[in-house]
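Objective 1b. Sequence-to-structure analysis of lysozyme.
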Amino acid sequence: MHLLQAVFLALLAASVSAQYPSRPKPANPKIPEVDQRCMDCLCQASSDCDETIKCHNAGGNSYFCGPYVISWAYWHDGGRPGDKGRAHDFENCLTNKTCAEEAVRGYMRKYGQDCDSNGVIDCQDFARIHKLGFGQCGGDAILDTDYWQKFEVCYIAPFQPYDDYGEGGIQARSGQHPPYE
């Protein structure tokens, strides 16, 4: 009797699954690689791309390193470039611009998304993710920050030198060039 019940249940399961075909998973949007122009503007917005910045405690559990102002967790999620198993490998990497860029690119490959809901994943999304993290990149509060203003001036006017953001430098250069189309 048990064999007959097992056969019946198998036939029943097969007929039910035939009525409800599995749905294909939606395709994940392709996350583009962060190009060098975007990297340069992320660096500029983060620290004026000051390659002399070492690691520093910003209060609480906030410990950031290098010109991209990156935390240990960000570096770890970005693939741990430069990790040789030594205690300060993350600090050595993040204070080296080239190594820090590997971490940024790895982080964006992992967490890149359309933060501003414009239908594309681009440098503006990467700038939001870099500053706010992947889980909080959708808000507009970032648009009123010095970070965002520096990023936009750099990204909109890429052929102008952007290594001199002294007092009033952003205001003097804002609006000089039309946005890219």
